[in-house]
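Risk register update: the risk of archive-format incompatibility is retired. Evidence:
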Amino acid sequence: MPRTFLICLLLVVSKISVAAELTAPNVLFIAVDDLRPMLHCYGEEHMVTPNIDKLANSSTLFERAYCMVPTCGASRASMMSGVRPAYNRFVNYLTRVSEDSPDTKTINTHFKQNGYTTLSNGKIFHHPDDQAHGWSKPAWRPKGVPTYRHPESLRIVEERKKIKGRRNRGPAYESADVDDEAYADGLVAKKTINDLRRLKTEGRPFFLACGFFKPHLPFVAPKKYWDLYDFEKIQLPETYHVPENAPAVSIHNSGELRAYAGIPAKGPVGDLTARKLIHGYYACVSYTDAQIGRVLEELERLELADETIVVLWSDHGWNLGEHTLWCKHSCYETSMHIPLLIRVPGVTDGDRTDALVESIDLYPTLAELANLERPKHLAGRSLVPLLTEPQQTWKPFAIGRYRQGDTLRTVDYRYSEYTQPNGKTLGRMLYDHRTDPEEDKNIVDVNALSAEVERLGALLNKEKGKPNPPKKKPAAK
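Archived output:
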């Protein structure tokens, strides 16, 4: 046996044995809303994210991780349940597992039933009371915390209260000279730190979920985080236009953004406003990074790090003007691609993997790492083998969907189909990531690629989530 292969084999066996010693490891489950992989550790050198970068140095970083649905409620429901979405399951931001998949045991419930203290701080499920029986205490969110702190923002909010409907929100961004705990995420970090201190004394294994709201709109963060970035250097994306040959159904009006003051109801966002939005997003990412740093620092101070698995994930990506889009809500890479870090004491040490993984893979991964039985309903695949051997051959696709669109990512391509429930095709897209990583030219109709399109379509339709059966009508009396 070659010596280099023997060394690698011994290293893998050693890592697996260390993981096995963690018979009931704690889990710190960190969620960040609307976070695309715009982090320094993902190669975005202009981003100031020292705490997530430090976590990456002792984790396995997943270069190609993807969400299931690019809207918060549906994405979180799918990930927490381990069930794939479909056109009639996990559809929009108001999704509840208790309604769309009521018989499913979610990850928090599974850990609770196996002796864990399970806690939810901030935003984990979209609705705090969804799957409430799976938490040891009611899910906690900050109450009474103003969204805005700057006097001008507060003035605008008061004026817009006169407007009826969803278009009465305040400014889309704010830079206020306040401390971190003036906004909700600073309080989420504080609550999580206090929980860690209490859990340390209780001695039971815990599953502590910590969900940060930023960089979700509005982009409000303390001024010191805005000051980390030079506004003059912030430019619009090169793809600030609709991709060539893209079907109309793939482009939306960025309705989530339109509700805020200073944003036109339709049409292009002005270049100056667009750059300020990008600046605000950067500031919020750095603000959230600082809160994550506070939590991880306390985990170390309490000497819990060596017995705690840490997972950092986002519910979906985010568009910053790419393809004229803002927010998420699309089948493009910018909406589907998420950051994912997993740290397992004694196992991970800063490796990276470009394997295609899906957010529904987290449930079986954590079940295996905690030595829990894997529920039979899980559609994902445990990522534990990638933690010990990051460069191994992995599954050939990651699949997601949004509304009428189903999308499949392979190593080389992103292929999407837009269909009505009756099967009528509304549009298709194919982008070659080897030559067009920005997804700027739809090549689905190129004759030379017809066989590849047929193969990708067949794979997508075979592997995508199957819809819930029609609800039975009550028997006639």
